[in-house]
Specification:
The complex is a heterodimer of chains A (258) and B (482). Chain A has 258 residues and is an alpha+beta fold. Chain A contains eight helices and 14 strands. In chain B, helix 4 packs antiparallel against helix 5 and helix 14 packs antiparallel against helix 16. With 482 residues, chain B is an all-alpha fold. Helix content of chain B is 68%, strand content 2%. The chains are: A alpha+beta (258), B mainly alpha (482). At the A-B interface, helix 4 and strand 8 of A face helix 6 of B.
Chain lengths: 258, 482
């Protein structure tokens, strides 16, 4: 008798459902590295400004970052394409099993990795175990930190006084956070569609980073829908997934050298 | 061989060797008995005699604990972990280095006490308690360091399976959860194992003290009278715990190593980490016992009667064996990883050997692997207390570097080269001084409050050992007690 390893949930079993639900395609060839996605993401998701010193020390909170690399020794350096890096919403996420308090569960409905801020106690194990290094930790209460406020007419102005999205939780110090694929937008679109008695249409909404990208390098949508733009793009030649050898089943496809 | 043979394990052999070097058997504690009353008095005096130097050190430690532990930790809780040096990619910093270090220190206590008791090694008798105390106090520091590490420490009880309205349960898939359970088991087990052999000594102290000390000992001695039945129960319970605590001890450090070995990181996911960490823990723990014995002997009254050259000699031999075992696992870990040829591991190993922290790597090899066997083979050197304490200190420094290399330095290298950055400790340094101060403060307080020498065990040992005259020679004999 053949035993279905997937039924047993055994480690190392080949997972059939590798596609997931929501996915993203990032075309590195047309990415200009303008950082508009980073700014849009920070505004959409209430990401704190950490100040110059902490940012220089490697404590930026951004959920998406543009990685730039160059090859070769000094005079003959060659820039590699810009590489936006964000949470890959892995199907088999290494961050999930290591959390001792279940603050990083997997959403079966949306096929996303969730982060429950209220439950997080800040062991930072998930961030250590993330091969993409895309989780960011709230080292301080940056949103109410007097050292990181601007002085305007003798009053302290915090960053969220200028820009604030009421749909997204403000995270306090000591909790982990990461890209959610703008889950507030997903839910909003789903609720609207449900109230109108229809399914969510491809392209009806998109994430903040994809919306802001001037070169349209980021595409977001349903990867399990083979008609959608994102799944057609992701099956193109030259589509790669990062660190695929770790069997994390990432949901973000990178297009390069097309 | 005969001249170096241990007098306890092979009493007849020591006699045969009298042609070479006649050893005075009265150099050994077990063959140099004192009347029970006198010995009890000596231990009581060692507890009550306190010079002004003690109070000076005690005061300094109190100030250090108040500033570097209580104030610094409170400040960090209030401000957030931003005041520490942890960042991306070194999300774990010195706090976990301290945790692993203190658990390592706590290992030797149980090892010496339980394993030597199970194997009936006689030289353990006078210093089991000093080692067991180290276990308990070291574990307290390890626990404190884990809590320092938490981002929201005020919610630490969420790690425990506390019944709650939302039916939230801790995640038993997480190595940190296993860690918590293992350390809790170890704290409870080792504290009971410390307390059981303490009861007769507490009763002894109760009968010989007045005032608040009498009340204190009266409560702790649980009405011990020393009847036959009480002794039988005590020895049974001690046997239970001695056997039970050995597997717990091995499992605890294996599980601590799994916090690293289970993670998907270059340099960490190594299957040999379990035994490697256990041996590393024993290595640092033995060194710590040598330091503690040296300090006890140098500062406390009458301790030179109880703690002798033979004990340093025995400890030195144990250290030598552990050094060899540790070296084996050290090279096994690094060489097998190197042979694997994984790209990231390769980068990591190059980073260790020529990066900015390479001095730590070479010091680790020198202090932990090269120097100890070069000195410890020699009996004369082994029997020099200050030298053994110095080697112990060196091993502990080396072991601290080892944990530092494994945690923040190895975390620097990950699969995303964009994030590579070297960790700089900030407030962690003060908190490290703080944990060391708390440990020393607890130990100093304990040295005044409970008998650091297990008097009844020494007396029991001395009763079973005797020198018999056969012709002109004195033959050491050991009788079975149980």
């Amino acid at each position: 008798m053949k035993t279905d390893l997937n039924m047993m949930g055994a480690k190392g079993a080949i997972v059939e459902e590798a596609e997931g639900k929501w996915g993203m395609v990032i075309d590195q060839d047309i990415c200009t590295g303008c950082q508009a996605c980073v700014a849009a993401c920070a505004m959409e998701n209430n990401i704190s400004f950490v100040g110059e010193e902490d940012a220089g020390y490697g404590r930026t909170q951004h959920w998406i970052r543009i990685e730039r690399f160059w090859e070769g020794e000094y005079p003959e350096v060659k820039m590699t394409p810009n590489q936006p890096m964000l949470c890959q919403q892995c199907g088999q996420a290494p961050c999930e099993p290591v959390c001792p308090v279940f603050a990083t569960p997997h959403s079966n409905a949306e096929q996303l990795n969730l982060q429950v801020y209220n439950r997080c106690v800040g062991t930072r194990y998930c961030a250590n175990n993330c091969p993409y290094q895309v989780r960011s930790f709230n080292w301080r209460d940056y949103h109410i930190d007097r050292f990181h406020a601007n002085k305007v007419d003798g009053k302290s102005v915090y960053s969220f006084h200028n820009q604030f999205n009421p749909d997204v939780t403000v995270r306090r110090r000591g909790v982990m956070e990461k890209c959610t694929f703008c889950i507030q937008r997903i839910h909003k679109a789903q609720d609207t569609a449900k109230s109108e008695g229809r399914e969510v249409v491809d392209g009806e909404f998109t994430t903040a980073c994809a919306q802001a990208c001037p070169a349209n390098a980021i595409t977001f949508g349903r990867v399990d829908d083979h008609e959608s733009l994102v799944s057609q793009l992701s099956h193109q030649k030259g589509g790669v997934k990062h660190l695929e050898e770790l069997n994390t089943l990432p949901r973000v496809t990178y297009l390069k050298g097309g | 061989m005969a001249s170096t043979a241990h007098p306890y394990s092979k009493p007849a052999k020591a006699h045969e060797g009298h042609h070479e070097e006649e050893q005075d058997m009265r150099e050994f504690l077990m063959y140099d008995p004192k009347p029970r009353g006198e010995m009890n008095q000596m231990v009581m005096e060692s507890m009550t005699t306190t010079s002004w130097k003690f109070w000076v050190v005690f005061g300094i430690l109190c100030v250090l604990v108040a500033t570097c532990f209580i104030y610094a930790w409170g400040y960090m809780i209030a401000e957030g972990l931003g005041v520490a040096g942890v960042m991306r990619p070194s999300y774990w910093g010195i706090f976990l280095v301290n945790t692993v270090f203190w658990i390592g220190i706590s290992h030797a206590g149980t090892f010496i006490s339980a394993i030597l008791r199970v194997f009936k090694a006689e030289f353990r008798r006078p210093f089991t308690r000093a080692a067991e105390l180290m276990t308990t106090f070291g574990l307290i520091q390890a626990g404190a360091s884990i809590f320092m590490h938490l981002g929201r420490v005020w919610l630490f009880y969420w790690l425990l399976p506390v019944p709650n309205q939302r039916m939230l349960w801790p995640n038993f898939h997480s190595p940190l959860m296993w860690d918590l359970l293992a350390i809790t088991t170890y704290v409870l087990g080792s504290t009971m194992y410390l307390f059981l052999p303490l009861i007769p000594d507490l009763a002894m102290a109760r009968d010989r003290s007045t005032g608040w000390r009498k009340t204190f000992f009266k409560i702790l001695a649980l009405g011990w009278r020393g009847t036959e039945g009480e002794w039988r129960h005590l020895t049974t319970a001690m046997n239970f715990f001695a056997f039970a605590i050995i597997p717990v001890m091995f499992s605890v450090h294996t599980i601590v190593s799994w916090d690293f070995a289970m993670a998907m990181r270059p340099g960490w996911s190594s299957s040999v980490f379990g035994p490697y960490f256990v041996l590393g823990a024993l290595h640092s723990g033995m060194g710590a016992v040598a330091i503690v014995l040296f300090i006890m002997r140098a500062t406390m009254k009458h301790m030179d009667y109880f703690i002798r050259k033979e004990h340093f000699d025995g400890l030195g031999k144990l250290m030598l064996i552990v050094t060899f075992a540790y070296s084996y696992f050290f090279f096994n870990d690094y060489i097998v990883q190197w042979y694997g040829g994984d790209k990231w591991t390769d980068i990591l190993l190059h980073w260790l050997e020529e990066g900015p922290m390479s001095w730590m790597f070479y010091q680790l090899i020198l202090f932990n692997i090269v120097i100890p066997p070069l000195l410890l083979w020699n009996k004369k050197l082994r029997q020099t207390p200050w030298l053994l304490a110095l080697i112990g200190l060196m091993i502990n420094v080396g072991m601290y570097w080892e944990r530092y290399l494994i945690i923040p330095v190895m975390l620097t290298i990950n699969r995303m080269p964009f994030t590579w950055k070297l960790y700089e400790p900030r407030i962690e340094l003060f908190l490290t001084i703080g944990t060391f101060s708390v440990f020393l403060l607890f130990y100093m307080a304990a040295s005044r409050l409970i008998p650091l020498i297990p008097v009844w065990e020494v007396q029991e040992g001395q009763m079973t050992h005797s020198l018999r005259k056969v012709g002109k020679a004195e033959v050491p004999t050991v009788s079975e007690f149980e």
